[in-house]
Design goal:
Length: 153
């Protein structure tokens, strides 16, 4: 069976950035399962997997616009330390959930200067060209429940 709309796909992958550093991997763990066509994974990887079958291996380079997007400067802003009531120690790299007009969103502390804390709401991989080394390990038709849920069950 080939990967197509509404198939449940399991893959092993290793993700590296443009410097060759491993950012994530499923090797030695359970494979990643997703519902093809439901936007469960980034578009550049999903598009490259269309038509592949069990046993296929591929290396996919994904530019930011087909991955996690470009860095959006408006997603980086300084806020007062007083917004972190109950948090004694704030350090660069810490992540918090912030209330935005679109609901809760994860943000990362990228700078601290005096009482000002700079937060970045971009995805940590935004703006990066990524390479996925992938092995397709399972492809099957999705159940009606999986299609309705938009994810494997």
């Amino acid at each position: 069976m080939q990967i197509d709309q509404n198939t449940v796909v399991s893959i092993h992958y290793t993700l590296t950035n443009s410097e060759g550093n491993v950012m994530d991997s499923s090797v030695g763990q359970q494979p990643l399962a997703y519902l093809h066509g439901a936007s469960n994974i980034i578009p550049g990887l999903e598009n490259a997997l269309t038509g592949k079958a069990v046993g296929d291996t591929l290396a996919v380079t994904v530019e930011p616009e087909q991955g996690y997007g470009e860095v959006r400067e408006e997603m980086i802003q300084a806020v007062e330390r007083s917004n972190f009531a109950g948090v004694d120690e704030i350090e660069v790299g810490m992540q918090f959930m912030a209330q935005t007009p679109w609901g809760e969103q994860p943000v990362t502390v990228v700078g601290i200067e005096g009482d000002s804390v700079t937060l970045d709401g971009n995805h940590p991989l935004a703006g990066q060209t990524l390479t996925f080394d992938v092995e397709v390990v399972e492809v099957r038709g999705a159940t009606d429940e999986e299609v309705t849920a938009g994810a494997p069950q």
